[in-house]
Each structure stands twice: as C-alpha cells, then as structure tokens.
Amino acid sequence: MNHTIPINTRLKELSVCVLIPTYNNSGTLAAVINDVLQYTDQVIVVNDGSTDNTAGVLQNFPALQILTQSCNSGKGLALRTGFDYAFKKGYKYAISIDADGQHFARYQEFAALAIDRLRFGR
C-alpha cells in the first residue's frame, strides 16, 4: 500500500466502507462516528431498533448512509443487513466498528493495508 496516499482516498480506491451497527448507544455513537469520519465518509450505520436517543444522534449526521430496523434483531442480523446494503451499493469490503467505543477508527488504516495485501498478494 502506498502510504503517501491519504487513508480516505485509499479506502475509496479499495471500495471500502465502514459499517457501524448500533443498539441503544446514544451515549457513545456520536464520538464513534466523528472518529470514523476523520478517515472516511463512506459510513453505513444500522440502527437496530434502538429505543434510546440513537435516532436523534443520527439526525446530526445527514451525510451518513443510515439503515433503520423497526425492532431489535441482534448484532448479527444488523451486520448482515449492513453487508447486504454495502454490496448493493458497490462496496467490495466493509470494516465493522462497534458503536460503544471499544474499537478505534485509526485501525482502519491497518485494515486497508490488509485488504491491499489480500488483493495483490503482497
């Protein structure tokens, strides 16, 4: 991977999006989204039937691709919903980041490097 290319440009070139499934994470979601947006604007959020203020938090990010499920179906189905949507939108890869703040967006660069190596066998 060419490290002189900004990570957001590289993620677009690789057709990578970031998928954030969320259920009742209104207290941490904005910080996670802001962290991810430092690296890419190709963000899909799946609101898995949250009953807290998650929908209100997401209203502050109109540029995101937001999928809303009417009831909580679990993280696995939220991820599958997001992956299906990403595929239909033409993304080749999706990096999943939890909405509770346990993952750090800066690791997207390592994920992009891994994808690069998988694609080109380096």
What do you see in this structure?
This protein has a single domain, classed as Spore Coat Polysaccharide Biosynthesis Protein SpsA, Chain A (Alpha-Beta Complex). It is 39% helix and 18% strand. It has five helices and four strands. Strand 2, helix 3 (54-58) and strand 3 (65-69) form a beta-alpha-beta unit. The mean pLDDT is 88.
Question: Which labels suit this protein?
Answer:
122 residues; globular; alpha/beta; Spore Coat Polysaccharide Biosynthesis Protein SpsA, Chain A; 5 helices; single chain
The strand line-up of the biggest sheet is: 3-2-1-4
CATH topology: Spore Coat Polysaccharide Biosynthesis Protein SpsA, Chain A
CATH class, please?
A: Alpha Beta
Give me the number of helical elements.
Answer: 5
Instruction: Tell me which CATH architecture applies here.
Output: Alpha-Beta Complex
The CATH superfamily appears as Spore Coat Polysaccharide Biosynthesis Protein SpsA, Chain A
Mean pLDDT: 88
Structural class of the secondary elements?
alpha/beta
Low-confidence stretches: none
**Can you give the helix content as a percent range?**
25-40%
- Largest sheet, if any? 4 strands, parallel
Question: What is the CA-based Rg, rounded?
Answer: 14 Å
Shape: globular
